[in-house]
Model the fold of this input.
Amino acid sequence: MKIAILHLSDMHIDNGNYQWLTKKTEQIVSAVWNDFSECGKIIIVVSGDIANSGKKEQYDYAKNFFKALLRSFAEKKLGDTELDNKIICVPGNHDCDFDINVNARQMLLPSIRSNAGMVDSSVYDVISAVQNNFKEFAKEIMIDNAFSLSINNNVKINAGGKTILFRLYNTAWMSSLKEEQNSIVMPLEMIESKSIDADLVISLFHHYYSWLTPSCDDNKNRFRKYVTKTSNVILYGHEHTPSSSQVTDYYENEIINEFEGGALYFSQSSYTRTSSFNSIILDLDSFECIVRSFDYNGSIYSEKKKRQVNLNQERKMDEFRHNTDFQKSLKKMSIPIHNSENVKMTLDEFFVYPDLERMNKRQLKVDEDFTDSSSIIEDTQYQLVMLEGDDQCGKTSLLNMYYLRFIDKYMYPILIKGKNIVNNNIDKIIGKAFDEQYCSNDKEKYLQYDTKKKILIVDDFDECQLNDTIKKKLIDQFLVRFGKVIITTKENENVVSSYFLMEKKNTLAARIKPLGHVKRNELVKKFYVTYDVNASSLQKQALLERVKAGFDMVENFLGKEYIPSFPIYILSILLSNTKMQNSSLEQTSYGYCYEALITCALLSCVNDKTKIDRYYNVLTNLAYYIYRKNGKPISEIDFRKFYDKYQEIYYSESYKEVKNNLLKCNLLRCTDDYYYKFSYNYIFYFLVAKYMADNMHCKDGQGDIMNLCQNIHDEQKANILIFIAHHIKNPQFVEATQLALMSALDSQKPVSLNRDDDYYKLLNEICESLKKEIVKPNEEIDPEKEREKILQKQDESERLASNDKIDPDNLPLEIQNMNKALRSIEVVGQIVKNRQGSLPKPNIRTMVLELYEAAFRTISYFGTIIESERSHVIEDVISNKKEGISNNEIIKKIDSFFELSSLNFCLFVFSKVINSVGSKELRATFSEIADEIGTPAAKLVSFSIISCFSKIAIPELGALVEDLKDNPVAMSIIRARVRSYLYNNHVSYSDRQRIINTVNLNPRDSHITANRPSRK
Done:
């Protein structure tokens, strides 16, 4: 969020100039409005000399001036910009009424200049009595009847979730008529020095440091150092010369920006007047600041100078000063990402909080076992949070974000690496971390500080080499010293029980989960919005389409659990895609990306790059060896047998060296200290596929691939088959997979959804009952929110499915047959997507055609099963019915159930085709195939694909409706698809109405107002 500060100074308002000044309020606002209108909040500050001689009537004039100024802003139709009606101000020397300059004041001033220690509240009251009129004025103009002008006052302003603290200093309390430099003393003992929660501190005073005396206990330098230490910015006036500078105190290691305001009114004679002020635009997220000075040129205020600066982001009023360099190190990405203008991006710009799955024994309901990890920041229930996760799940990034967010909440976290905990001397370990993460020597103070404000974060506690008994004692000591303790460990099923955490009170034990669909979509959107510096100027629909395309690309890359959906992998594929848009198709294929991930992993632990090829060969042969053992983990003995035989054929390093390196780079994983498997499915699938592709020239290799095609219902073999498509361009492979697709339920007649089709008859009655409901009347539609709802449902379904996994070989034969057909659709769809740039168009067209036919045969097969089972179900239910229920009622309800099941299955298969083969680039192919097959089913599938991946062409929609208007089943599916399109895309009001009219909605449905322009 950006805020705007109007910095006025030295107004010198009196009877002679107040009308002239008041008339300038509209011009002042007009001069700054273009910049201010883009800000979330406008704040007006005045750095002294509001009045000309501190008289009451002069402050009455000032009140009228500020009322006019606020009114001029209000007349600009602020919209989302909030105008703070409080005028934040300090007095200047002209705000003193020296007519009440009593003798006591005159007698005290010289003494104070030589002994600042004598100043207390009673002395201050006597000396500052000349400011009494200002004091009353300030209460009203700052909208605070309790305001009492002191040497130092604090005013908090909240904006964009951040707190801005204005520190007001009364440097004019000792002013005199003929004021001289080096004459003012600021009693530091009277300044409030306790810590205050604030993200930005702006100090406001009238006199610059040169007006303070250096002779009284070095008051000038002490005040300057104090202000520099406790402020990010100072605003001042008095000398009538606008200026901007950044001051660095290298000795104290402090940086501060200083902005001096010009005089809003200054007259050397009745004929010469000058008027000047500053505007400041401050981005509270980046701390970038633009300062402009304006001068009156006789008719308008024009910009004289402009300067852009980066403010010091350090929080200056915290109890313990944070080390900003350490904070910057937490924001570094594990993979370097630069935006479209080659600016390096930071973790906080992309980060998405993953979900956590609870592991405590006292389990709740399924949907309550998951919680958003961001909730830990606000949580007050759990003192100890134990998180386990995979090496690549983003544990460290999550903890880094926790650290930064706790700072935002004005807490004082300490981050410790598990490997650095080498003994049980907790205070020494904490003290060392404190020295690295804070810029103060208050280590002892921190150790004794309020535990509720302290957070301990321990990363990779499993890397601590101490035994479990000592670790348990360490955790107990952590809990005594800190209000909250967050610990991460490597994923290990026994980690929670080994630390005796399950029975601890106020403890959350959880596993960091891969990103679900909602979170993936959030990360994809953040990537595109942040990566493309021009994203904010995109039309909403253009950005939505970009996010959808990126999301679909990520889904294809992740596959069916090929790779866990960890942020590092999602960002890698998004970054690779943006960097390689002009590269060859070979380089942009997913196969290239998978290979790059494996190579990067090897490079992290194999120092000699010339040995990478050797390791690849080991991995490829090992993957095939495990595949031949049904893909199950192999024992240490089997691993050793494999490697001994491997070394008989190939030159390679020792068994121990190879095994340790593969474990170290996380390509292999050892469980129970005995069994070995590949860490992620994509490694296994990719390497097995590579082995088969490399051996396709021989009989065994060809036999392997045919075996995959014939057993395509097996998930593992289907996935390997997809990965082979990354390696093989051989036409034989394409033909083999195409044959597998053609053979799926090849004896079944494809569904057509013509009115004489058997499956049509199953759907007709229920589709008639659904009729034309499409979008609720008068409903405002947000496509992003509608998309999120869909993704949430997918997340919920996957969570439920993960708790109820079934061995496909144990399913009934009918279900296995359908699974085989559906798997064939997925595999061929992936081949089409991955190879559409390298396969000839006729091949692509043939494969898509066969895919359609396989889908329609599968639907027809389901219909056959439904019909055969319907009579049995009716007979069983009637034989066991309760009294009072008629047979007709039972038959009607069962028919309704089977009709709804048939419709849902039909739509499910259509959806499977859409997701498997859908592509914007193949639009013409889908239209051609719909025309060639010629059935309503084919036309509906092609229309659905096109409307999912492209904009609906209203003439084409009209032609489809005209063709199928007498087919209630087809029209019901069209309306459902159109409804989804309208809910999930930004569609102009005129196009929306045309689409509604085209699909013949009821009159009441044509009153949809979503996205309708308002009438003025």
